[in-house]
Amino acid sequence: MKTLDQFDLTGRSGIVTGAASGIGLAYAEVLAEAGAKVTLTDVDAAGAEREAKRLADQGYQTRWDVCDVSDLAQVAQAFDNHVAAFGGCDVAFANAGLDVGNGFWTPEGNRNPEGQIDVYDPERWYKSIGINLNGCFHTVREAARVMKANEANGYRRGGSIVITSSNAAEVNEAIVGVPYMAAKAGVKHFMRHSAYELAAYGIRVNAIAPGPFVTNIGDGWVKKNPAAKKAWDELVPVGRMAETYQIKPLALLLASDAGSYMTGSHVMIDGGMQLGPIKPL
Ligand code: NAD
């Protein structure tokens, strides 16, 4: 087989959580570009519908579903709907996530009095864990359930699960809130165990750990605040935040047969932020 043919997803299907915006939308686009049938899910139903229709208008086979990843029943329903529509599931991106704010540093680089541990708002902690960590568990749980059933359903055996982690799983990225770092570190190790357990079923599990990408995360502050964007650009060794198209090749590698020997990997795509301190105290 020619190398580039291993990236072809013709005849396959994939589902993405948090697909109405940013990195999740880029995942949905690259799946479609590679030939897969795609379900875009999001807690923002209007956004998922809008983007699924936009891709369908370009000739891709897409559908959409509303799905809040913090609610296991909604995640299970979204996966069941995907299988009912496409016969099985080859690829699942557990991507939905958010930053609840209140980092140790403000985006502008000042100490944030509300971001210190001794006064940290517990409700923000619970919300972050509920979406970033529990939501990941719900999605991987349901992906494993439907992928294990693929072969018995007369569909292709196994599948690929790709989780969106963060460089904050590895380094003390004190600008994002501390629960975000804790959740993503949890995501990383949950991914590693899931990969170990599911390998025997032909299911690969990997995580993409992005550094700073220009998306709508944190209410899109980076798009609204040029000074904060500039401050972030200067924290990155390559000198700039990333655009979402830059994550597509890595996403396709992990989703497709091109990544057939990769499982349990936490792959950094961070412009080198892992190489040094994010910001000195
Ligand atoms: P984004 O805000 O542009 O997109 C996130 C999408 O997830 C939105 O469409 C939002 O509606 C959806 N969402 C939020 N809560 C949800 C929920 N409970 N259930 C379902 N959908 C929900 O942000 P993004 O930057 O594209 O974030 C995507 C993933 O990338 C997240 O897991 C985030 O932690 C991760 N990430 C982002 C960056 C970055 O710099 N942008 C860096 C590292 C990791």
UniProtKB/TrEMBL annotation:
It holds the Pfam family adh_short_C2. Keywords: Oxidoreductase. InterPro entries: NAD(P)-bd_dom_sf (IPR036291), SDR_fam (IPR002347). The keyword Oxidoreductase applies. The keyword Oxidoreductase applies. It comes from the Bacteria. One of its GO terms (molecular function) is oxidoreductase activity, acting on NAD(P)H, oxygen as acceptor. Belongs to the short-chain dehydrogenases/reductases (SDR) family. This is SDR family oxidoreductase. It comes from Alteraurantiacibacter aestuarii. The lineage of its organism: Bacteria, Pseudomonadati, Pseudomonadota, Alphaproteobacteria, Sphingomonadales.
